[in-house]
Specification:
five-stranded antiparallel β-sheet, single chain, alpha+beta
């Protein structure tokens, strides 16, 4: 059997809310509960398992492959939710996307709806690394920076 990636654990203050957010933003099926986890499953059956913790949240980095239509749909959901997004990690270019490596990229922040809905609790980066000749799959990276007071 070939080696395949199966799952990773993401720390969260509210595992259900964070899993729901990711599934909705990426257009994936609703998370399912398994033991202490809320699991978001990608189309290649890899799981992102959210688990609640009380300690400090570490920085995390995740990459996803999506097609042009999926990338556009994710960006539409960011705009419909009125999430702040920017073209650069330093957040100096708000409401812009970048075109690095011939693709498209942006950063956006997850908000804490139950507490202060304006306070960012997780910052994500979506970055395509270009289009292939057939207009097919793009590499999209979601980089997550956790803030110590959120999920």
């Amino acid at each position: 059997m070939a080696i395949q990636f199966n799952h990773t654990i993401l720390s969260a203050r509210d595992s259900k809310a964070s899993a729901d957010f990711l599934a909705e933003m990426l257009g994936l099926p609703a998370p399912r509960r398994w033991g202490p986890f809320y699991m978001v499953t990608t189309e290649n059956e890899a799981n992102l398992d959210y688990m609640e913790i009380q300690g400090e949240l570490a920085r995390q980095h995740y990459a996803f492959l999506v097609g042009d239509a999926e990338f556009d749909a994710i960006f539409d959901r960011i705009r419909k939710r009125k999430l702040t997004y920017w073209a650069d990690p330093a957040r100096r270019k708000p409401s812009e996307i970048n075109d690095h490596d011939g693709g498209r990229g942006l950063y956006f922040a997850e908000r804490a709806s139950a507490r202060n809905h304006h306070a960012p609790i997780r910052q994500w980066r979506l970055e395509s690394l270009g289009h292939n000749a057939g207009g097919g799959t793009q590499r999209v990276t979601a980089r997550c920076h956790n803030y110590g007071t959120g999920s």
